[in-house]
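queue> pop job 88
queue> type: inverse folding (structure -> sequence)
queue> payload:
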């Protein structure tokens, strides 16, 4: 029941921990250091935090840590190609620590009420995806870590939602940071790419300290900033002016929150992206039972009296036009929608406005029939084989006829002792 740490190894070396119990401290257990010697400890599962074991592993590869294990905090040192998923870690110095990790995945982890939620130190080429990190001092922290992907995470109510320290060339996309003191802080971190994130009601949306050449868009779309005051005169879901942060600018700020949903047909999976001024829930997709018709459906929650808009990006291989949009208030009503100029043969961009009282939206289109194209392929193959067989039969028959004629003329020549002159003809096909 200490105000700060229960047991903390701070730049320590060769420590052996056995049979220690840490309960109800603000941060039960933590470890800090800069080089391997300061992480080279012997800490077994007899050490407990809030009655759950500490898992401290050194030098592992190709392993999976998931909900099938019991863990209070997880520290992976010198890890390669490791998967961590579906865990819940709380109340520690590091909820989840990866030191010198490469090619690893951290997914669907809940790290709450830690000093640092999910931590990558000296780690490269990893993916941190779909995690929830609320109520930490820092939600997601990268230190001396380059070339990682941080995507689709939720980081609410921390001091710093996402923080990078001396970390370059990382991609941060699709994350949502709400009600933090700092939405994102970049300290001595450069050449990172930050786009499709939602920075909502943070006291300071973005804090740049000695950081340069960071890009706040992907070349055509940027981030949603809840304090952006620009307009969207051409109704394409993007602001007409940049979101200016002094040394760094988002040239294509989003006018609504960014969403990305996974959908699937019988053939494969797809991603539907959305920029929407409303809170979107209940997204789903299904066939209607009417031929190859398929719909996507979702619920919207709007501020009272405020009209809404959605710009939906749909892969045409998943759902092709023509599209029909409907909105639901007390009944379903056809709603005007337009195709934006950015639409192409692979992706359709649909834009629609709606009143604040609308509760649900449906987009209907046509799903390419997964059974249609294989059947055509089989018929075409059969036809090609049939033509080839007829050609071979015809050629063989011509050959046999020609051979018989030659033999017959040779027999006559031998009987009459007269020379024979043969004219060889190429079979006509």
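queue> result:
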């Amino acid at each position: 029941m200490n105000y700060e740490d229960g047991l903390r190894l701070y730049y320590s070396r060769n420590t052996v921990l056995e049979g220690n119990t840490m309960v109800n401290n603000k941060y039960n257990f933590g470890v800090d250091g800069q080089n391997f010697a300061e992480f080279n400890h012997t800490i077994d599962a007899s050490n407990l935090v809030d009655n759950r074991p500490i898992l401290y592993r050194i030098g592992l590869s190709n392993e999976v840590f998931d909900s099938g294990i019991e863990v209070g905090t997880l520290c992976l040192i010198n890890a390669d190609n490791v998967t961590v998923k579906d865990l819940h870690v709380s109340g520690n110095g590091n909820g989840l620590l990866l030191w010198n990790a490469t090619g690893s995945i951290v997914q669907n982890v809940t790290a709450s009420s830690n000093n640092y939620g999910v931590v990558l130190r000296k780690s490269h080429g990893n993916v941190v995806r779909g995690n929830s990190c609320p109520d930490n001092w820092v939600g997601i922290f990268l230190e001396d870590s380059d070339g990682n992907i941080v995507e689709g995470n939720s980081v609410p109510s921390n001091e710093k939602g996402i923080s990078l320290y001396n970390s370059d060339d990382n991609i941060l996309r699709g994350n949502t940071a709400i009600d933090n003191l700092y939405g994102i802080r970049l300290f001595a971190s450069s050449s990172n790419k930050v786009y499709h994130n939602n920075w909502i009601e943070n006291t300071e949306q973005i804090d740049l300290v000695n950081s340069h050449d960071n890009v706040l868009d992907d070349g055509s779309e940027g981030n949603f900033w809840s304090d952006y005051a620009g307009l969207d005169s051409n109704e394409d879901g993007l602001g007409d002016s940049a979101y200016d942060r002094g040394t760094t600018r988002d040239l294509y700020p989003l006018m609504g929150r960014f969403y990305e949903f996974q959908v699937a047909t019988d053939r494969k999976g797809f991603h539907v992206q959305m920029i929407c001024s409303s809170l979107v829930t209940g997204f789903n997709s299904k066939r209607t039972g009417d031929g190859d018709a398929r719909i996507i459906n979702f619920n919207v929650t709007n501020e009272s009296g405020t009209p809404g808009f959605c710009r939906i990006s749909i892969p045409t291989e998943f759902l092709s036009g023509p599209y029909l949009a409907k909105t639901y208030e007390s009944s379903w009503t056809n709603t005007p929608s337009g195709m934006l100029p950015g639409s192409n043969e692979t992706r359709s961009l649909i834009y629609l406005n709606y009143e604040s009282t609308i509760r649900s939206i449906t987009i209907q289109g046509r799903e390419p029939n997964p059974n249609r194209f294989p059947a055509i392929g089989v018929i075409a193959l059969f036809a090609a084989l049939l033509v080839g067989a007829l050609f071979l039969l015809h050629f063989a028959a011509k050959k046999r006829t020609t051979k018989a004629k030659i033999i017959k003329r040779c027999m006559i020549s031998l009987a009459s002792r007269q020379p024979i002159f043969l004219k060889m003809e190429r079979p006509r096909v």
